[in-house]
Amino acid sequence: MTKHIRTAAAAAGLLAALALPVASSAASSTSGSPQQYTMQTRFADEYHGGEWDATMVLTVYPNGIVQGTYRPQDGGWKTVTGGVDGQQIWLDIGMMRPLHLTGTFRNGELRTIAAIPGPDTYTLESTSVTRNG
User: Fold this and answer.
1) How far is it, in rounded angstroms, from Cα 55 to Cα 108?
2) pLDDT at 30
3) How many whole angstroms separate alpha carbon 110 and alpha carbon 89?
């Protein structure tokens, strides 16, 4: 009986040892350095004149999480949270009643549409981008 328990324990240990390289290679596919982007942005209503310019700093983590800040030219700042999956991105700007944006993020270029009720279409897009890492 003891021999069977030792054999089973040895087999379980061997299987666990063989599974370690597989697990570590799977984890490395989402590991890596976060990428940081500093971009000048333009927020505009497509049907009315005027725009609001700001600086947005985004950190994009390998697992798709996005964090950053949004700093309008008129002062202050807001927290940015979101996620990216391939070239699709969603962002929430602000904490209380955040502005929700969806769109694309390709090579640091941001093109989004704001989810605001009503007939107007608001866009937020990058006008220039600097990649910081």
Assistant:
1) 14
2) 54
3) 9
Give the residue extent of every domain in the chain: 1-31, 35-131
Residues 6+ apart with CB under 8 A from 74: none
Q: What torsion do the CA atoms of 52, 46, 118, 56 make, to the nearest 10 degrees?
A: -30
The count of other CB atoms within 10 Å of the CB of residue 79 is: 13
**Pairing mode, strands 122-131 and 109-114:** antiparallel
Backbone torsion region of residue 12, taken as left when φ is above 0, otherwise alpha when ψ lies between -120 and 50, otherwise beta: alpha
E-strand ranges in 11-120 read 35-45, 51-60, 65-72, 78-85, 88-93, 99-106, 109-114
The bridge status of strand 51-60 relative to strand 88-93 is: unpaired
**What is the distance of C-alpha 28 from the center of its chain?**
18
The CA distance from 119 to 100, in Å, is 16
Return the CATH fold of 35-131. Answer: Lipocalin (2.40.128)
102-120 confidence digits (pLDDT tens) = 999 998 899 999 988 877 7
